[in-house]
């Protein structure tokens, strides 16, 4: 700012070079004036301090006299040399206004060839109407809302003519401290003060602080505000008005001392002007200038003659000069600013992704979400947990690992608790305990950690998971399986000779496997919960836009997902019906092997029981001299075959058949449930829930459905539109700065 202070000889008519740089800044003001600090001159002060009068003196633009008309918004006046004399009036819309509002406001444009007070008043009235502020004739809208007293749009006045010098200055509404009934409110006071502050804070703004001479500048609020915005006071210039109203000698001296630089701390100093007063309404601007000249040639003001700081003519020279200097100095920096802002805007827009205001863009957007979701599904099913960083933090989303755990727990539970009564263990070799990485304790632990499907996280699953489990009466420990078989046998004995009906096996099997339903349903529900949870979280991860996600989830996916889960449950019910309630059947040779082993085991046991231990000489060549064996007498052998024919033997035989069949059946059932319900229905099958959100679904959405899901909501749309608008303004501005604009 230091440069700005030095005065350079003022050229009444700027050189062509200057003209072009000034024109460029004017174009920039039009394009990005509200977004980038441009070198500008702003007139601020209290209401009625004489701002508009000073502006009129600087630009020769006479505001309509009606005070109410021109102080409700900032007014930018640009003078420019053109062949034809003309005045153009338009409105620069407020940055925050909506696109529609901006378009409406930009439509306002009036061109005046000859400037008469009447024609100007008319244009101003129209402009007020467009800005939607209240006037003496219109204070409310038809719907009863009161119109605001102030507007943040800017009235732009271009004054062109052969005698004009390039110059732009902005008039801001005056600060006031008292509300006026029916016109201004308490809130308006603050609004205007903030507006003034905003205009003053730009580091490239020269502040012209207007103050009447009949008060001490030291007491003026406007200087305090200026000092907040410009702490070093290097870009604030004070202009004292109404010296003719400072009648007291003391007041006059205070004003003179300020102009002389003896008081105050402004680097740019104090100027003094005398405008036409309310009584001079009939006088022309020219007459007013003549009056002013005369006024300053008289005592005590004549003492200021050599300061070149008294009178509008001196102020005008100084101010224009300052502005031109400032523009020259700041111009190169503007380039940097514009380039930086442009790249920020572009990256902001980029971050928003492509626009979604038409079908193709919406479909592409959904497809992108869908693809990233499917990638997560693929990785989760293949246990490729390096595929996405989410798997590192969220172990609950390691889908296939969680499922394998559940499978193991299911299989273990079926082994340990599937049967109603333990089989008598002596006759059949003990079932090999399946060796697992984890101990049984570990597996119980995992079962506890596995989510409870009815924990309320997903209310949408309640209806599916809630079909209540059967209540099964506990069988007392004393109720041995052999006692049970004996009961069944006695109750259903026919005339069979040492045999029993197939229906009996079926009855016993149903009783023995009645726990299966609960265990299996519990397992499948847990798996459904895990799959559902995964889908929910994976969609959250793939679709960050909450509105789109809700629409997609509630409007389209949920119903299909529920259908898939119901399908899985109904397959469980079917498999239970076949295995548990159906006719026992197996072609598995394991059944016969097991049965024969059990039978021969019983025979061996009987022989062992009857016979006595003995040893005989071992054959030639064997390592041992004797071999152990069993010795039976003929009588004992006879007794043995007798034993095998009684009913006890039939019951043992029933037990062995049941045990052999149960084991085959259990293994088959566990496999089939895992394979069909979990693997096929829930994970890999044609209509599995993980497949529901796929590109085909996106393709098949109707235009309306697509719009409902993927259209951008209003705030996002607005933001994008604003960014696009700003970018195009900044691109234009960039062209201007580079010289091609
Ligand atoms: P603004 O509200 O700050 O824009 O002030 P205006 O320029 O509209 O002036 C307010 C009133 O003060 C008007 O009636 C002007 O005629 C009057 N006024 C402005 N400057 C002077 C001046 O230097 N001397 C006298 N006597 N009156 C002035
Ligand atoms: Mg005014």
Q: Percentage of helical residues?
A: 40-55%
Number of strands: 11
Structural class: alpha/beta
- Biggest sheet: strands side by side, in what order? 4-3-5-2-6-1-7-8-9
So what's the overall shape?
A: rod-shaped
Mean pLDDT over the full residue set: 85
Tally of helical runs: 25
**Rounded radius of gyration (Å):** 48 Å
> What characterizes the major β-sheet?
9 strands, mixed
- Ligand list: guanosine-5'-diphosphate, magnesium ion
Low-confidence stretches at least 5 residues in length (pLDDT < 50)? 1-17, 426-444
Count of discrete domains:
2
Note the beta-strand portion.
Answer: 5-15%
Q: What's the helix and strand layout?
A:
Blueprint: H1 2-5, H2 16-32, E1 40-45, H3 51-59, E2 74-81, E3 86-92, H4 99-106, E4 109-112, H5 117-131, E5 154-161, E6 167-171, H6 186-201, E7 205-212, H7 221-229, E8 236-241, H8 249-259, E9 270-272, H9 285-296, H10 312-351, H11 359-381, H12 390-393, H13 399-417, H14 440-449, H15 459-465, H16 481-492, H17 502-512, H18 516-542, H19 546-581, H20 589-610, E10 612-617, E11 626-631, H21 634-643, H22 647-684, H23 695-700, H24 703-710, H25 714-738
Parallel strand pairs: 1-6, 1-7, 2-5, 7-8, 8-9
Antiparallel strand pairs: 2-6, 3-4, 3-5, 10-11
Helix pairs in contact: 2-10, 2-25, 10-25, 11-18, 11-24, 13-14, 13-18, 13-22, 16-22, 17-22, 18-19, 18-22, 19-22, 20-22
Residues 51-52, 70-71 line the site of magnesium ion.
């Amino acid at each position: 700012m230091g440069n700005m202070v030095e005065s350079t000889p003022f050229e009444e008519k700027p050189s062509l070079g200057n003209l072009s740089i000034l024109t460029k800044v004017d174009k920039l003001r039009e394009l990005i004036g509200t977004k980038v600090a441009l070198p500008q001159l702003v007139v601020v002060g209290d209401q009625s301090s004489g701002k508009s009068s000073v502006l009129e003196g600087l630009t020769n633009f006479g505001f309509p006299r009606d005070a109410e008309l021109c102080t409700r918004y900032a007014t930018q006046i640009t003078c420019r040399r053109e062949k034809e004399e003309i005045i153009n009036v338009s409105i620069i819309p407020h940055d925050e206004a909506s696109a529609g509002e901006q378009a409406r406001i930009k439509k306002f444009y009036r061109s005046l060839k000859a400037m008469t007070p009447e024609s100007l008043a008319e244009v101003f009235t129209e402009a007020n109407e467009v800005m939607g502020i209240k006037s003496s004739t219109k204070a409310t809208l038809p719907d009863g809302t009161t119109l605001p007293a102030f507007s943040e749009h800017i009235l732009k006045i271009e004054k062109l003519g052969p005698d004009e010098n390039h110059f732009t200055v902005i008039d801001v509404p005056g600060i006031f401290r008292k509300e006026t009934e029916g016109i201004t409110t308490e809130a308006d006071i603050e609004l205007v003060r903030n507006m003034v502050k905003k205009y003053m804070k730009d580091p490239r703004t020269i502040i012209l602080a207007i103050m009447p001479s009949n008060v001490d500048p030291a007491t003026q609020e406007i200087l305090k505000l200026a000092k907040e915005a410009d702490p070093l006071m290097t870009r604030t210039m004070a202009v004292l008005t109404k010296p003719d109203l400072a009648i007291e000698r003391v007041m006059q001296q205070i004003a003179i001392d300020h102009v002389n630089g003896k008081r105050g701390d402004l680097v740019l100093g104090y100027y003094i002007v005398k405008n036409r007063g309310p009584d001079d309404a009939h006088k022309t601007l020219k007459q007013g200038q003549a009056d002013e000249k005369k006024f300053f040639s008289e005592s005590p003001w004549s003492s200021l003659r050599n300061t070149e700081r008294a009178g509008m003519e001196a102020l005008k020279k100084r101010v224009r000069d300052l502005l031109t200097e400032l523009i020259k100095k700041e111009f190169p920096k503007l380039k940097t600013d514009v380039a930086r802002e442009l790249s920020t805007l572009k990256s902001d827009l980029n971050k928003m992704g492509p626009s979604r205001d038409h079908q193709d863009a919406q479909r592409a957007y959904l497809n992108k979400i869908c693809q990233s979701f499917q990638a997560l599904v693929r990785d989760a099913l293949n246990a490729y947990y390096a595929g996405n960083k989410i798997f590192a933090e969220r172990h609950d989303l390691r889908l296939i690992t969680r499922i394998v755990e559940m499978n193991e727990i299911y299989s273990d539970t079926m082994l340990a608790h599937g049967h109603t009564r333990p089989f008598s263990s002596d006759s059949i070799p003990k079932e090999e305990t399946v060796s697992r990485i984890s101990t049984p304790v570990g597996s119980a632990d995992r079962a506890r950690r596995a989510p409870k499907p009815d924990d309320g996280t997903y209310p949408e699953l309640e209806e599916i998971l809630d079909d209540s489990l059967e209540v099964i009466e506990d069988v007392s420990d004393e109720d041995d399986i052999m006692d049970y078989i004996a009961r069944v046998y006695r109750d259903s004995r026919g005339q069979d000779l040492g045999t029993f009906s197939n229906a009996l096996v079926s009855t016993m099997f149903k009783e023995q496997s009645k726990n299966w339903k609960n265990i299996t349903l519990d397992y499948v529900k847990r798996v459904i919960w895990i799959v559902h949870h995964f889908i929910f979280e994976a969609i959250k991860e793939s679709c960050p836009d909450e509105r789109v996600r809700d629409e997609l989830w509630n409007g389209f996916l949920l119903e299909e997902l529920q259908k898939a889960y119901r399908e899985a449950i109904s397959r469980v019910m079917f498999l239970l019906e076949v295995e548990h309630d159906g006719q026992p059947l197996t072609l598995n040779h394991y059944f016969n092997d097991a049965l024969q082993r059990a039978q021969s085991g019983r025979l061996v046991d009987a022989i062992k029981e009857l016979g006595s231990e003995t040893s005989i000489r071992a054959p030639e060549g064997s390592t041992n001299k004797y071999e152990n064996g069993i010795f039976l007498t003929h009588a004992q052998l006879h007794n043995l075959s007798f034993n095998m024919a009684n009913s006890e033997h039939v019951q043992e035989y029933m037990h062995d058949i049941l045990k052999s069949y149960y084991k085959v059946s259990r293994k088959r059932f566990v496999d089939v449930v895992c394979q069909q319900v979990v693997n096929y229905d829930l994970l890999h099958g044609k209509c599995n829930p993980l497949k529901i959100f796929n590109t085909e679904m996106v393709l098949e959405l109707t235009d309306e459905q697509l719009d409902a899901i993927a259209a951008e909501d209003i705030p996002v749309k607005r933001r994008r539109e604003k960014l696009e608008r700003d970018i195009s303004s900044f691109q234009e501005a960039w062209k201007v700065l580079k010289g091609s604009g």
